[in-house]
Amino acid sequence: MASPACDDAVEQLARLLDQAEEPLKTTFQNVHQGYPTETLVRFLKAREWHVTKAHKMLVDSLNWRIQNEIDSILEKPIIPVDLYRSIRETQLVGLSGYSNEGLPVFAVGVGMSTYDKASVNYYVQSHIQINEYRDRIILPMATKKFGRPISTCIKVLDMTGLKLSALNQMKTLTAISTVDDLNYPEKTETYYIVNAPYIFSACWKVVKPLLQERTRKKVHVLRGCGRDELLKIMDHSSLPHFCRREGSGSSKHSSSDEDDCFSLDHQFHQELYNFIKEQALSQELIKQGSMHVNIPDQDPEDAKIVEVIEAEFQKLGDQNGSINGDNKE
Predict the structure, then answer these.
(1) Rg of the Cα trace of the chain?
(2) Which residues are bridge partners to 221 per DSSP?
(3) Distance of CA 213 to the CA centre of its chain
(4) N or C: which end of the chain has fewer CB within 10 A?
(5) How many helices (H) and strands (E) does the chain have?
(6) Rounded to a whole number, what is the largest CA-CA distance in the chain?
(7) Which residues lie across from 285 on neighbouring strands?
């Protein structure tokens, strides 16, 4: 789309937002962190530059934030710490470093995440806390360090251990992806897929044609652990631990906990957890129990993709005779 048309769309959306009620404008400040134009562009991109649709998406997201008290979610630690450690061991995600351009590099252990040590509410709460910490703390720090607006990240998705039994986690995964798609659009610059087994390749073949071209272009399936390709855009110290040598995989015991960015003992998770505890103490808010966040209705196109993935998993399961065994990978 030509730049003048883009500028016009941004201006139209900004004017519409100016008419919003004050609580929406207040939560929008937490979203844009001083860069409202870039934020409007993200929502416009997510709706193919259709101003009316982007406005509805943004207002729905701001209302979701207010109704679920997202602005104060970084004041609500998951306690006791043993429960939080269990979540970190079964929801594998962490910040491994930064790209050469200053973008945060988030590692996700897709294949080894089991989401089986806590309720869906806890996993959703933890995911949103990481999103909010990224947007309010990590990205502003990167912006200051590199002297230019940095509002997106890179994700390296490790498919080691992906099995057909991943169907069992579809409810949790769908909840998290729906929250991201509708409330944190266009926050990921590029997705790098590494250590991809057969089952991923089979699913990718049927899902890829369903994705919008904008999304397809973001996804890069790398050979093996992807080390050589990733070293073109980041230093070795920023590589996720599962990319540092061929065949290393994402085993939780393949490196020390300080190097394993999934571990609660890693610097990123220590800083995140301590930040939330300190915010809670300052507000005298520490209490046990998960925070219930309403999951927005899934976009019909995304629901279709989930159906296709489930059908492909079922087909692969039928071919291998069992959906719960150690199937072909």
Answers:
(1) 20
(2) 193
(3) 20
(4) N
(5) 13, 5
(6) 58
(7) none
**How far apart, in whole angstroms, are the C-alpha atoms of residue 114 and residue 21?**
41
Between the CA of residue 78 and those of 24, 39, 61, 110, 127, what are the distances in Å?
A: 27, 29, 24, 22, 12
Q: Are 156 and 40 in contact (CB under 8 A)?
A: no
Q: Which residues pair with 105 in a beta bridge?
A: 97, 154
What angle do helix axes 22-32 and 51-67 make, rounded to 10 degrees? 100
Backbone angles phi, psi at 109, to 5 degrees: -90, 80
CA quadruple 157, 304, 296, 164: dihedral sign: negative
Count CB atoms within 10 A of the CB of residue 161. 19
Supply 138's token pair. 């990590």
Question: Which tens digit of pLDDT belongs to each residue from 151-188?
Answer: 999 999 999 999 887 778 888 999 999 999 999 999 99
Task: Supply the pLDDT for residue 251.
Answer: 46
Structure tokens at 279: 């915010």
What is the percent of the chain where pLDDT is above 70? 90
Residues 51, 9 contacting (CB under 8 angstroms): yes
pLDDT digits (tens, 9 = 90+) for 18-58: 999 999 999 999 999 999 999 999 999 999 999 999 999 99
Nearest to 94 by CA among 153, 48, 145: 153
Q: Could you tell me whether strands 93-98 and 104-109 are parallel, antiparallel, or unpaired per DSSP bridges?
A: antiparallel
List, in sequence order, the alpha helices (H) in the chain: 3-18, 22-32, 36-46, 51-67, 81-90, 120-133, 139-146, 170-183, 198-207, 213-216, 227-230, 267-283, 300-320
Strand partners of residue 109: 158
Per-position b or e across 217-235, b if 16+ CB within 10 A of its CB:
ebbebbeebbbeebeeebe
Pairing of strands 188-194, 219-221: parallel
